[in-house]
Amino acid sequence: MTERRTAFGSPAASLWSKISASLPPDEGQFPLQFSDKVPLSVVEMLKRARQELYGGGTTGAGRVLNAQVILDYSWERLNTGTWRHVDKEWRRVYSYGCLFKAAALCREAPSEEGIVQAIRTCDMGLLMGAAIMGNILQVIVCILQSEIRKLAKEEDDQDHVEAKKRKIASSHVGLIREELAVPRIKCPSLESFNANHLLPLKPVILEGIIDHWPALNKRPWRFVFSRSTRIQMNIVFLDEYLRSVAGCRTVPVEVGSRYTDEDWSQTLLTVNEFIDKYILNKGQVSENGHKAVGYLAQHQLFDQIPELKEDIRIPDYCCLGEGDEDDITVNAWFGPKGTVSPLHQDPQQNFLAQVVGSKYIRLYSPEDTEKLYPHESQLLHNTSQVEVENPDAERFPEFVKAAYLECVLKPGDVLFIPVKHWHYVRSLEVSFSVSFWWS
Amino acid sequence: MRWFGFGFNAFAQICVQEKSDKEESSSAVRVPTQLKNHVGRSKIRASWSRTASLFLDEDRRVRLAGFSASISGESLGPAVLDTRGCEDAVISETHLTLAFPDRIESWDLQSKDEAPSWRTEIVHRSQSSDVHLPLVPGGYVASEPPIFRPLPSHLQAKSLALGGGHAILLTAAGAVYTWGQGSHGQLGHGGLIPEEEPRTVEALWGMSMRSVAAGGWHSVCIGDGGDLYVWGWNESGQLGLPSRGLRKTSRQKSDLQAGGLCGSVGTCPAEDPHEEVFISIQAFPALVDVSPTCEIRTVSCGSRHTAAVTTTGCLYTWGWGEYGQLGHQTTASLDEPQCVEFFRNENLHVVDVVCGPWNTFAAAVEKEVLDLKNVPESPL
């Protein structure tokens, strides 16, 4: 790590001054209020950490250790019982632990690695904790991220990324049967969408409604598909853009072919690690002869990384619902070729917007639920037992009788999946989709 | 008999340490440290922030060390609470339960109430045989309200261990029952579902167990022949079985030391995932080979670590070690039982072990004066 020099004093001091500017000015104005679910001994540890944050008494290592005690204790509470029943107070305590630890890591001339560790700490708080002090972890992680980007810029002078060529092998011709195709409509009015599709709960692909998204025109997400040469020209790789905006951020990744498999698991990786391991397949270790598939699935990436939110928009048609805009859940779905979401249903309306790459999707009506053999267990009751593209006719004889619609969703398409409509999704190439769950 | 403590000490519940400028904070005691004021026989019970000592040779008082109880800062001690004549105690983060010959009381450590939050009389002397905390006549006392929980009498409960969200019960006949949270296999029935009522651990059917212990998410029991059985979560190696999480963290740590960025994606060329089988959750009981030659005499579990004493006086520990609770004078976690050399080096014969969530207390006697007749038959 080379010395960084500026004309305006030590950069390390300015990082800390930015962070402490985002904190309350003194100990007295730093709130530590908890319900009686939190034992007094834990509150005592929190008070000690707060004291160390504003005082100069302890060493950096000592402060980190104190914060770690708070993290370790609350982590144990977060892992006790079911996640749904974990008291929100413990998620708040966990966030405080992350705050104290991140602050301790950045106090005294942190190296790049120290800043990355602090970012990871903030991310853990954002993922597992509950918002505290005006979502201060989000504020601090933004400060830390711009610091990292500054350092990256100094190290790497190359601003222009050359257009690169990447061959694609997939062909979508002949994949869809015309008589089963999901209907497509271009820019319908609110009234006609409401009357013809929302009220009767009929799936449809809306074309042209996200053309204005920066992700699809201004910002370098777009893959330019050249029909004549069948080579994809990337203005800038999607993954390089994501690296620059979010490379060291920690995200949850699903590993395994499908979430109904025994060897399916979830893990936490940075965006860099995820892209290296599961998109670019570097250093991939094959297990059982198959390459493990990793899927950054069902993650509220746009809340975690607000810069990315600027690249998308909430579809206007969501206003036809009853809920507030704040109640709309926006999820990112980013993965390589071959990610599979088993046939399942969701309790809300869904707009699935395709940004990069393409997906094969099949839809079944809730009227045919019995023919889809949902799992009996409460946990998987919304998921079918049937492998859609390789059904076991002996165990699931009625499945072939169920009517369905299918499509290949490509960049610029938005699929309307009505509430409770069963859907199966398989990516045909590296793909980035955004889903909007609304009511 | 001397008691030694090691592990989490942020509330000075093991010993008071001098504040120094050293990096090493006083929140972890790495070297087993003798507890002061323990003369003669005593029992130790530990919660996360406190240690309760019951002195058996004196007037049988309970003394608390660690985090002071009530808001005013006064400690809960003999001045407020008369603990003379106490026979047994259990302590959680919020409650202290005391068993006397004629009554059992459970005190809320966070309130200034001058009365216990729960109390029961022991009417018949014969009932006192039912008292083996947390077992009480008719049921058991829990760590949080409702304090008293009934148990069906047909179970013939002999001893009970309460874990982070589950319970493991040993009957007079040597059978094992579990109930509570099951999400990490800690019930030993082979699945991950919770059980509301005590359910027998069928995998141990036909084998007589003599002792049970429970950690945050794991369960342990000792068979009549001195074998050790474990089940539950192994994320820190607390089962003594190979833990993938442990290998990952140790690789990340050495990456950091080598100056690499956190979370680098190197794969270790020497490690072939096909060779080694890692166990994250063990949903059925598994046998653990603690020491090739010795029987296990007693075992205790912390939140994510396990400690076992052999009949030959060796203390073995394994699992989470971040606060020095394994006693090997490091903060490394282990997924294999390892002997705590400190006691061997000091010529001490370990006779008992009691774990708090993040620390460990071992009772030891000098080897030279060890007279086999004086060694208690069963642990305290």
TrEMBL record, chain B:
SUPFAM superfamilies, per the entry = RCC1/BLIP-II (SSF50985)
Positions of RCC repeats: 174-225, 226-312, 313-366
Spell out the InterPro entries in the cross-references: RCC1/BLIP-II, RCC1_domain-containing, Reg_chr_condens
User: Which protein, by its recorded name, is this?
Assistant: RCC1 domain containing 1
Name the Gene3D superfamilies on file: Regulator of chromosome condensation 1/beta-lactamase-inhibitor protein II
Going by the entry's taxonomy, the superkingdom of the source organism is recorded as Eukaryota
Q: Name the Pfam families for this protein.
A: RCC1 (PF00415)
**Lineage, broadest ranks:** Eukaryota, Metazoa, Chordata, Craniata, Vertebrata
